[in-house]
Predict the 3D structure of the following.
Amino acid sequence: MASTAADILLDTLCVWGVDTIFGLPGDGINGIMEALRRRQDRIRFVQVRHEETAALAAVGYAKFTGRLGVCLATSGPGGIHLLNGLYDAKLDHAPVLAVTGLQHHDLLSTFTQQDVELDKLFADACAYNARIMGPAHVENVVELACRTALAYRQPAHVTIPIDVQSMPLTRRERSKGNVADHVSHTMAWGGGAADEASLARAAEILDAGSKVFILAGQGALGARAELLELADRLGAPIGKALLGKAAVPDDSEFTTGGVGLLGTQASQRAMKACDTLLIAGSTFPYIEFYPEPGTARAVQIDLDPQRIGLRYPVEAGLVGDCAQVLRALLRRVERKTDRKFLKQARKDMAKWRDLLADRGGREDVPMKPAVVLRQLGKLLENDAVLICDSGTNTAWTARHAELTGVQSFSCSGTLATMACALPYAIGAATAHPRRQVVAVIGDGGLSMLMGDLVTLRKYGLSAKIVVIRNDLLGMIEWEQIGKLGNPQYGVELEPIDFVKVAEACGVRGVRIEDPATCAAQLRDALEAPGPCLIEAVVDPDEPPFPPSLDLAEAAHFARAFARGAKGRGKIARTIAGDLVRELI
Ligand SMILES: Cc1ncc(C[n+]2csc(CCOP(=O)(O)OP(=O)(O)O)c2C)c(N)n1
Ligand SMILES: [Mg+2]
């Protein structure tokens, strides 16, 4: 029997090492489903309940493995549902391939049923985007899609008309120039080494500085030993962008933790005070948190030359793999005897750790979200995968869940989409069935895609889902009040009993309301085999901001309350800054 286009598609994916596809069937991909059915021994099809879950699960899979994440959706609405996940892949540089169906090749663009030209729709999201025109077109296109996604760490997309999927490849299908077997399936990577001249300039800049700060991002995730050695050599504290949280462990004496709004005061102080900045694999987007332009000399390491100088006027750009470039720098830079800057950062960090211990040890009821995340951090296994969603839950996780050992972490960093955490957990648990996978998610975010709790059950994925329940689109309320000075509007959520939802999906559910039992309940839930949903009922009035507000922020609160914002007394009591209490 001659191979069909769908057979060639899947055989090509197999050659590229794909063994897992997240998706949901539909009449626009039945040809591909049939080819999948016949390859169950080689490719695992993970059926999800929403195509957005499929795309985000593929992103999670790619982020936690470095391998190609693959999602599959039917023509029209199924494909459209993938889009948010593909943008997540684009913005956070995850290699993802989307495969979709199109209507019959000879009915396309005739207002036929589900006639959505998905290649056009995905044009902005995907680095490679192709419509397959016949069975002889499959191998070269799919090969290029896989290669592009991996090479550029971007989403790629291939769409195949439903009738083409089942067409066998015959000799007459080929055009003369499309010689059979003319493409290679060997993946090749760039050298990853920076050029000599830039390395010499970078070493000169780092040697000249007396207050060096290292900003580590996602690109530095594989460079832990090198970062720590360089930090020691230069007496330089390391601050971490959120996607770089696992670059060095939070308990290292060389890190000041996170940077930015979700970060620590120790990082902020060091980043603002440094005279030399080394940006290692980060394009952390909040430019206002960098040193004032002109106050620090800067060096940047990035795989992508396009990204050099994007956020700060660097004097040397080192294009290459972080670990390799850092090793090259280590061969060139001197050890600094002046350790004052590092000492100050350590002092600031010790103070910050005291504050975290205080915040995470509170016994108030309703429970403070920091209590949950602090305990959770302590209970994570040495190689756990930690995921968070978008909202105040991001702030609690970023600050209070300390990563140690060889734990991994990610979230939707740059797109910051809600609802990524459960799909990422599905992707991570599928890829790493023996690692502990824990996802922290807001009640708003979970309710968007919670049908996929049942996917954990269906595939026996032992992920633990921690819902931070505040019955609120928390982050938005704080922005309305604290950033704009407006009373809150449209942010209250009709309560959902997530324990019951989990149980209805065949997943164990646990509710934690009391800080006194939080640690023990979390431990039990994490230790129990199989998936589990942990609903942590928290104080909705706890602000996700740093522990002190500036005058402008305090004034926003005062203005919002003067204009009728609800919870004046309660919110004022929970805000650490005396300024607010004085103003309202
Ligand atoms: C898909 C999507 N819609 C809207 C937003 C804007 N947004 C950011 S955080 C947030 C609130 C999230 O609420 P919840 O999931 O309950 O988390 P919480 O802030 O309460 O921790 C919203 C609406 C977003 N980032 N993504
Ligand atoms: Mg919420």
